[in-house]
Amino acid sequence: QFLYFIGGMSAEPLVDSGSPETKAEHRELNVLDPQANSAAKFATNAVSTAKYSFIPLSIHFVVWKNLFEQFHKAANLYFLLISSLQIIPGISPTGRFTTLIPLTMVLMVTMTKDTYEDVKRHRSDAELNSRKVMVWRAGKWEEVQWRDLKVGEVVKVHNNSPFAADLILVWSPLSEGMCYIETANLDGETNLKIRKAAGGIYKMFNPDNPDAVAGRIVCELPNNRLYNFDGYYEKPGKLKISLSADNVLLRGANLRNTKEAIGIVVFTGPETKLMKNSAGKASKMSRVDHITNRQILMVFGMLVIACVACTMGISVIHSTGDPKWYLPSEGEPAIGWIVVGGFATFLILYNNLIPISLYVTIETAKTMFLARFIDNDIDMYHAETDTPAMARTSSLVEELGQVDYIFSDKTGTLTCNMMDFLK
Question: Are 251 and 164 a contacting pair, CB within 8 Å?
Fold first, then answer.
């Protein structure tokens, strides 16, 4: 059995709760019944934008993941190979740790820098998750942190405040339950948009006693479609009311020109449409890193050719006579060991063709200078709000100097769009 609603933004069907495919097709939640919702194991309202974890058993632990990212650089793999060969006795013509120690220092400095930047993300997440919102619990309005918000609860949002989760609007003091929201953080639009409570819910709702709205909501599964929402609210045996995108208040938007608004939580934390549209915390490499990788591979190819030529030369010398006639005879090594050992020896001997100081210089410049120049740039300081520029990561700052063109649909994207009315 399928149920269709004309009031929705989409014609996609919602399966009735009696269907065996209920869980696979849509979400069911009980309004003001946290115990019934706990069995569904909905996501918490805590969000994380950090890249690393500080739990050693996690696959995102800062040590494992950061080393995995750093060894995406060809130079680090090359120096790891050289360090491994130098440890083997009888092959290295240099000290055993002449490359390993500098390589370890480079890895540790980069890891420390990336960890410090990720700690700032963790602090920002903690500050966001610790914000307060009014929630109807146990017959009264309570102030709770965002991270403690649960699906199915009724929350009250005041003017100029952000929405803590994706909400179904049920009441506002304006006519017909209307409110104004700003979605600049979602789609870049600064003009205010209108949202309205569903007529049937608005008429039955009492802001002094929200318990009357207890019922059930059936809606689509969490997705990243900002302008679509399909669902319905029902009180078993009494009424069924269609819900659409015009009734939804999305996390990331702000309430404007409205004293307060009350809504029912439908999506929380990582299941909100804002977080569904957030790009994953991918490991990024700048264009400079890609170019450096290609050049190092080219130099490494030349190095291999030189090592092969020298190995062939030493093999010829060993095959034509005893190269150590001036030393006591200790037996002639096998030709295979001469080739393998000779190649490894020459590879270590010529490893300075790719200087490890190259990456030391690059990381020092990015960490100590480039990001700090952005933070201290007076031309990017906004005096009215006392807001300086802030480089959240030093890994991509060199990309800013390589922008050739900016394509924009309107000048308002790049300018302030402020007008002065003259009398």
Answer: yes
Query: What are 113-165's pLDDT values in tens digits?
Result: 889 889 988 999 999 999 999 999 988 999 999 999 999 999 999 999 999 99
**Are 110 and 363 in contact, with CB atoms under 8 Å apart?**
yes
Which residue among 386, 404, 409, 420 is the active-site one? Answer: 409
Asked whether 393 and 285 are in contact (CB, 8 A), the reply is no
d(CA 335, CA 323): 14
* Of 129, 270, 262, nearest in space to 201 by CA: 262
409 is catalytic: yes
Residue 173 · residue 259 · CB < 8 Å? yes
The answer, as to whether pTM is greater than 0.85, is no
